[in-house]
Specification:
340 residues; Rossmann fold; Helicase, Ruva Protein, domain 3; Zinc Finger, Delta Prime, domain 3; six-stranded parallel sheet; 17 helices; 54% helix; elongated
C-alpha cells in the first residue's frame, strides 16, 4: 500500500521552490512556527499574484464545515494549472473526518493545505489513515523543541540571516523566551531590523532591545543562586515580586530546574574536561564554569533537595496544594529553601 511522503521543513521548501507540488499537504504538530512558515510560503509563492484572485482560497477551520472544503477543493482552476486551498487552524474543523473520501482521491489540479496546529493528528482515526496512506499527500510533523535544543536553534536561525550572536546572548534569550519559536523569531526579527551590519548580538543588545532588565532577570538569579549570593538573590526576587507579569513563577521554576539538573550532572564530572561536561549537560562550553561554581557551592544532597523543592513549588504555582498563597510569597519561600 502506498504511503504519504514525510518530509522535513527544508525538504518541503526545496520541493516547493522547484514547483514540485502534492495535491495535499498535512502540516501538523505541537510547534506552530514551522506550520505557519510553510503555510505562508505556499500562500505567497505557489501562484502568481494575477492568478490568486480566482485560484487561491483561505479558509479557517472554526468558521467552516467539510462541505465548504469540498466545494473549494473540487473546483477547477481558472486560467491556471493549479488552485490553492488553505485551511488555517484545521484542528478546529469539527467535521474533518467527513473529508476522508476526498483524501483518498484528491484533485491533482488542487493544492489543499491542512494547517493543523498545536497538536498532532490522531493517526488512529480512519480519515487520518486515509491521509497518511496516500502517495498524493505530503506530511510534515512539527515537533516542539526541548529546552536544551533552543540555543542551537537561535544560533542557526541567525546564521541563516548571516548575523552573529555571542553565547551569553543566546543563553539569555533562551532562558527569557523559553521554547516558543514564534515568539523567539518575532523578537529576533525586530532586533535585527536596525542592527548595524557586521554587529554581533551580545547580551547588552538583548537587554536594551527586548526589555530584559540588565541586573534583574532569571539568568542573573540563576547566577546568584549558583554562587549562593544571598543579598543579590533576594534583591532580584524583590524585583520579580514587584513585576509579576514579566516574571511568572512557573517560568522561574522551569529555568532553575533546568539549571540545577545540569549542576547535578556536572557535580559528578568535575574531573572531566569542560568539553566533556558541556556535551553531557547539553550546554555551551562557555558556561561550564558557572555550572562548576554551583556544583562546588552545594553538596549532592543539597542539590537533590533543591530539585525536589523546585518540583514542589512548580506544582504549587499551578494550584496544587496551594492555599491561595500569592506567587510572590511562594517565590520568596522557594529561594529561602534553596539557599538554606
Amino acid at each position: 500500500m502506498a504511503k504519504a511522503k514525510s518530509l522535513s521543513y527544508k525538504q518541503i521548501l526545496n520541493s516547493l521552490n522547484k514547483k514540485e507540488y502534492f495535491p495535499i499537504y498535512l502540516l501538523h504538530g505541537e510547534e506552530s512556527f514551522y506550520i505557519d512558515a510553510l503555510t505562508k510560503h505556499i500562500e505567497e509563492n505557489v501562484l502568481e499574484d494575477s492568478a490568486k484572485a480566482f485560484n487561491q482560497t483561505i479558509l479557517y477551520g472554526k468558521e467552516i464545515d467539510y462541505k465548504t472544503v469540498l466545494d473549494s477543493a473540487r473546483r477547477y482552476p481558472v486560467m491556471s494549472e493549479k488552485q490553492v486551498v488553505i485551511i488555517k487552524e484545521a484542528q478546529e474543523l469539527k467535521t474533518l473526518d467527513k473529508l476522508e473520501s476526498y483524501f483518498q482521491n484528491p484533485l491533482d489540479s488542487t493544492i489543499l493545505v491542512l494547517a493543523h496546529k498545536y497538536k498532532k493528528l490522531d493517526k488512529r482515526k480512519k480519515y487520518a489513515k486515509a491521509l497518511t496512506g496516500s502517495s498524493k499527500v505530503c506530511v510534515f510533523e512539527s515537533t516542539r523543541l526541548y529546552d536544551n535544543q533552543v540555543p542551537n536553534w537561535i544560533s542557526n536561525y541567525l546564521k541563516d540571516k548571516k548575523i552573529a550572536i555571542k553565547p551569553a546572548a543566546i543563553t539569555l534569550l533562551a532562558e527569557y523566551l523559553g521554547a516558543d519559536l514564534s515568539k523567539i523569531s518575532n523578537e529576533l526579527d525586530k532586533l535585527t531590523i536596525n542592527l548595524p551590519k557586521g554587529t554581533a548580538i551580545d547580551k547588552h543588545i538583548i537587554q536594551k532591545n527586548i526589555g530584559i532588565s540588565k541586573d534583574f532577570n532569571v539568568f542573573e538569579l540563576q547566577h546568584a543562586l549558583g554562587k549562593r549570593e544571598h543579598f543579590k538573590s533576594f534583591l532580584i526576587v524583590k524585583y520579580f515580586i514587584a513585576n509579576p507579569k514579566n516574571h511568572p513563577l512557573p517560568m522561574i521554576t522551569a529555568t532553575l530546574y533546568n539549571f540545577f539538573s545540569k549542576v547535578y550532572i556536572c557535580q559528578s564530572m568535575l574531573r572531566a574536561s569542560d568539553g566533556e561536561i558541556a556535551s553531557a549537560i547539553g550546554a555551551n562550553k562557555f558556561f561550564v564554569k558557572d555550572y562548576k561554581v554551583a556544583a562546588k557551592s552545594y553538596s549532592r544532597i543539597q542539590i537533590e533537595a533543591i530539585i525536589a523543592t523546585l518540583k514542589e513549588y512548580d506544582l504549587r504555582s499551578k494550584g496544587v496544594h496551594n492555599a491561595n498563597i500569592p506567587h510572590g510569597e511562594l517565590l520568596r519561600e522557594m529561594i529561602v529553601k534553596i539557599l538554606g
